[in-house]
Design a protein that fits this description.
111 residues; mainly alpha; 25% helix; 0% strand; globular
Length: 111
């Protein structure tokens, strides 16, 4: 998106100067970190989400790879799982926990 905006508004300078970086994951542990970042990032930033429950403001409730039994909405998922997901699954570390957080601390502290 940043590249498209920069290209479209070229006469006004760069929209996201020095803020765009993309690298495709090449290993399953990188993909695991990406899923953890996208699905559990709210916890890292202090959003109060009860233990063993998925982030209600993301697509985490539809993610099929949780270690916990997550209650899913009755409506269809707003996102599609990659085609490779069902065949690859998690060979590194097992299923994700809804209590994992991105960054150096991986589990939500006990209260």
């Amino acid at each position: 998106m940043a590249k498209a905006l920069n290209a479209g508004w070229r006469r006004h300078g760069k929209v996201f100067l020095e803020r765009y970086f993309a690298r495709a994951p090449t290993r399953i542990h990188q993909v695991r970190r990406l899923f953890r970042y996208v699905l559990n990032n709210a916890r890292k930033h202090g959003v109060p989400i009860p233990r063993n429950q998925a982030d209600p403001y993301s697509s985490a409730r539809w993610f099929p790879g949780w270690a916990e039994d997550v209650k899913r909405p009755n409506r269809r998922s707003p996102v599609a799982m990659p085609q490779w997901y069902e065949t690859t699954h998690w060979s590194v570390g097992g299923p994700l926990s809804v209590n994992e957080m991105p960054g150096p601390v991986h589990f939500f502290p006990a209260r």
